[in-house]
Amino acid sequence: MACPIARSLERVGEWWSILIIRDALHGFTRFDQFQKSLNIAPNMLTRRLNALVNTGVLERRYSDRPPRYEYILTEKGRDFRPVLIAMTAWGNRHFAPEGASALLVDKKSQRAADPVLVDRRSGRPLNERDFVFAAGPAASERTRRRYAMGDQKKPFARPRTSRLVRGRKCKAS
Questions:
Q1: Residue 163 covered by a domain
Q2: Short-list 136, 126, 133, 28, CA closest to 77
Q3: How big is the CA angle at 42 (ends 38 and 47), to the nearest 5 degrees?
Q4: 31: in domain
Q5: Total structural domains in the chain?
Q6: Same-domain status, 74 and 123
Q7: pLDDT tens digit string along 44-86?
Q8: Less crowded by CB within 10 Å, the N or C end of the chain?
């Protein structure tokens, strides 16, 4: 399938794989570290690590002292960090009624970050009003038709809701 979302999910969409990448981004490199953190069966962990190595997200390196394999994130694996940041923010916002169990914080101030996706070129937030998906140069005819059908719809109208900012309710923009 040519869809970049489908292709990505095919490689890392299984939840154990995403949690392994999360732990690797936290600095875990050894089988026993992943197993202890995730409480995952050894055979399942072996399959997931092998799949991530085969996909090019992790590199398996042998260490002589002590003798064992280590699993190191590749550039492809490190590029997954923004996806995990977005998933953490989304999960905390929509699926954590008891409160956030993990936050992205500024190292110096320890203040929680409020992640937002921005366009690298313009610095503008990637909101629904200003940015839309479009067929790319390698798009199939079917994909081009799908995006053309989407162009015929009315512009996205975001409902006004309130959100919690620093302990008080504010109107969302």
A1: no
A2: 28
A3: 95
A4: yes
A5: 2
A6: no
A7: 999 999 999 999 999 999 988 888 999 999 999 999 999 999 9
A8: C
What does pTM read for this prediction?
0.80
Contacts of 143 (CB under 8 A, 6+ apart): 2, 3, 135
What is the C-alpha to C-alpha distance for residues 129 and 134, in angstroms, rounded to an integer? 14
Taken as a whole, the chain contains a residue count of: 173
| Proportion of the chain above pLDDT 70, given as a percent | 87
**CATH at 43:** 1.10.10.10
Taking 80 as the threshold, does the pLDDT of residue 165 lie above it? no
Question: Which tokens sit at 38?
Answer: 């995730």
Instruction: For tokens 């949690």, name the residue.
Output: 19
Q: Using an 8 Å Cβ cutoff, are 44 and 58 in contact?
A: no
Asked if residue 147 belongs to a domain, the reply is yes
Q: Which residues constitute the domain of residue 128?
A: 116-152
62 DSSP 8-state letter: E
